[in-house]
Design goal:
Order of helices and strands: HEHEEHEEEEE
Radius of gyration: 19 Å
Number of helices: 3
CATH architecture: Beta Barrel
Structural class: alpha+beta
Shape: elongated
Amino acid sequence: MSGRTRAACGLVVASLFAASTAAGQGARVQFGVAGSLTVPLGDFHADASGDGFKAGWQGLALLDVRPRKSPVGFRVDFDYGENSSNDKFNADLSGVVGAPTTAKIKLLGGTADVTYHFKASTGGMEGYLLGGLGVYNVKLAVTSGGVTADSSETKFTWNFGAGLSFAVGSAAVFLESRYVDVAKSFGAGKTSFIPITAGVRFGGK
């Protein structure tokens, strides 16, 4: 079993354990979906030569568990996203290959986070903080002449952020922003970025 498979299985087991335990204790369990605009930072945005990647997108599914009498909860995210190479990187790749060439970074993985919820204000709105660890498979895909070659590495990641949640019946709409730091891959810099996320959670209030 590969490291990526073991990590994915670990996150699945953790999420199922958290959900079953919380259900048995009468905690609120919500499932959610969301989409993000991802803004690259540091060398992921552009290295010393100007080679880097543009803003991209990310989709996620999540499980959010929160004991009803505690502000502290637990959340597991499963994510997939893509970022395309910038014009400078495309030009450099094309020069090396001798034909128009582009690249993409594809990120597949997940994180397990601790959450802290502030008391709900009027109108069913509350704030929250979150942070934790996870693992991402980082895939670099290079395309030229209709042919794509790719290479991937699995790396640990950490993240932290904050958000706002708005109750809508038994569901909740949320907006959040995080800093995500994926360890160095392909002998280059870290894949660090800020996902600006909007989504909805369904389940018990």
